[in-house]
Amino acid sequence: MGLSRRNFTPEFKLAAVQRLETGGSVAEVARALEVNPNVLHRWRLEVRQGPGNSFPGLGKQRWEQSHVAELELKIGQQALEIDF
Fold this sequence. Notes:
Helix 1 (about 10-20) packs across helix 3. By secondary structure, the protein is mainly α. The chain has helices at about 10-20, 25-35, 35-50, 65-84.
């Protein structure tokens, strides 16, 4: 039987990043929370990239991706109007 992937809530991830920002080392926080240090680095990077990009969750698009998709839709509609 294979290992199942653990899911962490956005609140848990933010709390972990806050522990890092308040002076905890990556190794200490990783041991305390029982997560891989690389995961903590990735979470911290996502938080630093901006609030719209942090932890999109299950099936939710990142803000940038949804914005790009919206703009592409507008361009397609305008192209159809110009063709008429």
